[in-house]
Amino acid sequence: MEKHPLEEYEQYWLWAHRKVGTYPEPVRNGKWMLFIPDSEINAAWDTIRTAVEEGKLGDTAKVATAKPNPNALDRHRKLICVYTYDAEDKEDVVRILQALRDLGFQQGLTYKTDEATLAGEYSFNTAGPVSLYYAYKETVELSTPKGRSQKQVGKSRLQLRRKS
Predict the structure, then answer these.
(1) How is the chain split into domains, by residue range?
(2) What is the dihedral sign for C-alpha 93, 142, 51, 130?
(3) Could you give the C-alpha distances from 87 to 11, 18, 116, 132, in angstroms and in order?
(4) What per-residue confidence (pLDDT) applies to 160?
(5) 20 to 30 Å CA-CA from 156: which of 27, 85, 99, 112?
(6) pLDDT score of 164
(7) What is the CATH code of the structural domain delimited by 5-163?
């Protein structure tokens, strides 16, 4: 039996990896970010972990654990990250968003590049949104996050291309 997030105190993250099928190697990867109340995190993680392992999402996902994390904004919610291989591949980003909706995750979701995370950009230390995309509740459309201009989105894409 897999360990649940609220049972893990040694590591910040538990990981899930694809066991079925293939998925492209990371290029300019990013992730859908789901903020789940503690009371629902174990069940949500079971759903996401199973979907990743069965090849229904991307190649990997991770969930925050009970170990206190200095980057966590709300100690009563845990983060699940569902990774995509390329933030520029909107078809795949939307495919994974649709799969998350089909799994029952209907809340508003943010999509952030790993480049922004590796640069230390978090909502608590950066002026304006750090997300590349936002999906409003129950939708599968990619929107520009409030407070982020199309110019900023274009700049992020240019930076992603330069890194590759």
Answers:
(1) 5-163
(2) positive
(3) 27, 19, 12, 8
(4) 41
(5) 99
(6) 40
(7) 3.30.760.10
